[in-house]
Amino acid sequence: MAIILSILIISFLILIHELGHFLAAKKAGMAVEEFGLGLPPRLFGKKINGTIYSLNLILFGGFVRIKGESDSQNKNDADSFASQAPGKKIIVVLAGILMNFFVGFLIFWGLFAFGNEIAVDSANKDFAKNLKIGILEVAKGSPAETVGIKPGDRVLSFKNSNNETGLLSQQGFIDFAKQNAGENIFIEIEGRGQVNVVPRESPPPGQGPLGVAIVEIGFVKYPFFKAFTEALKHSLSASVYMFEAAGKVLENAFFKGDISNISGPVGIVNMTASSIGSGLGQTLGFMALISLNLAVFNLLPLPALDGGRLVFVLWEALTRKPVPQKYETWIHSIGMVLLLGLLLLVTVGDIRRLF
Q1: What are the start-end ranges of the H helices in the chain?
Q2: Are 319 and 145 in contact (CB under 8 A)?
Q3: What pLDDT, on the 0 to 100 scale, is given for residue 198?
Q4: Is 196 buried (19+), middle (13-18) or exposed (0-12) by CB count in 10 A?
Q5: How many whole angstroms separate alpha carbon 87 and alpha carbon 314?
Q6: Contact status, residue 198 vs residue 184, Cβ threshold 8 Å
Q7: Are 301 and 117 in contact (CB under 8 A)?
Q8: How far apart are the C-alpha atoms of 19 and 292, rounded to whole Å?
Q9: What angle do CA 250, 256, 258 make, to 5 degrees?
Q10: How is 38-49 classified by DSSP, letter by letter?
Q11: pTM for this structure?
Q12: Distances in Å between the alpha carbon of 178 and those of 142, 150, 211, 309?
């Protein structure tokens, strides 16, 4: 069920992207030949006001076909994409990206306004309640791993054999483990009860007495309008980080052959399914990040992506002369082949990591 829900979530976000292109094209007076739910082959379709609305066999995402966007036929028609001014083309090309960004921002706004369990820092601590210690990583062979502490666990309280405890904060937990090194301490894990563990007196370099990486977590709820500004700042900063990271990842993939940091559809579905098991807030948060990722990925100036198409439109705007359609088609086709090849390699890697 989690996998099915993951596929539906990703399909919805892809469909939202295509809906952005569809609505912008319609608004600009362009003819939309087909708006499809799922991917071909077509099961059936109905033509309404010049547009075929179709249901396709592969129920994953969707697509939109705009007249004159990818071929030279009817390029001089008034309702063709090719005949439009560069400004209108730019709006249509960016519409899918903006739609994904808007959905990601909207989800974060809702989470910040209604409250969600997130990492606590100096900027949001005044709005946080129900503080806990979140376990991010557990070192192999560490005392924490030995007693079954896992990434994703939440620490509710801790004490030693004398019932002495420390401040329930990131630094408080670290200090408590150091002060009780070599002694038995009792850690209460949310949903799992109490575990007994002995912190190391001489941990390996780079590790603490318990061998865990932690973060302070709390239920953070902002006032409605502050939630708006915080969600916008969070969405923008996350998008900038993703754009920079995507550039480095693709550079490593194409020039160094390193695809270890790339996840394809299989990996994304698996990560989404894991977030579903962590609760509604985590699922929505991960959904927002996927939506922002789709926006950022499509903005990359690569052939076959929206960013690649944007480069051609900007060239047309600057030179007042479009690139010949056949050359643009060849470039996008080569880009698509390269991306599909990369996708195949990444998918094989995702499947290997699962098993």
Answers
A1: 2-27, 86-114, 143-146, 170-179, 224-251, 265-276, 280-299, 306-319, 325-354
A2: no
A3: 94
A4: exposed
A5: 9
A6: yes
A7: no
A8: 16
A9: 65
A10: EEEEEEEEEEET
A11: 0.80
A12: 15, 20, 12, 56
Residue reference for tokens 């098993």: 355
Domains in the chain and their CATH numbers? 2-113+224-354 (no CATH), 119-220 (2.30.42.10)
**56 and 10 in contact (C-beta within 8 Å)?**
no
Distance CA 93, CA 308 (A): 10
The SS3 assignment for 37 reads strand
Q: Which residues of the chain have pLDDT under 70?
A: 1-2, 71-74, 253-254, 256-278, 342-343, 345-351, 353-355
Residue 183 falls in the annotated catalytic set: no
pLDDT tens for residues 243-264? Answer: 888 878 777 766 766 666 666 5
Q: What is the three-class DSSP state of 78?
A: coil
Check 18, 34, 216, 328 and give the catalytic one.
Answer: 18
Q: How many CB atoms lie within 10 A of CB 62?
A: 22
Quick one: pLDDT at residue 268?
62
Partners of residue 196 on adjacent β-strands: 186
Helical spans, DSSP H, in 118-261 = 143-146, 170-179, 224-251
Q: Specify the pLDDT at position 263.
A: 63
Q: Which helix (H) or strand (E) covers residue 277, if one does? A: none
pLDDT at 18: 95
Backbone angles phi, psi at 141, to 5 degrees: 75, 5
- Residue holding tokens 């060849």? 330
Query: Are the beta carbons of 233 and 244 closer than 8 angstroms?
Result: no
Coil, strand or helix: which one is 120?
coil
The token pair at 206 is 């780079």
- Check whether the bond before 41 is cis (ω within 30° of 0): yes
Q: CA 143 to CA 312: how far, in whole Å? A: 57
Residue 319 burial (CB < 10 Å; 0-12/13-18/19+)?
Answer: exposed
Q: Which 8-state DSSP code applies to residue 167?
A: -
Give pLDDT, residue 332. 82
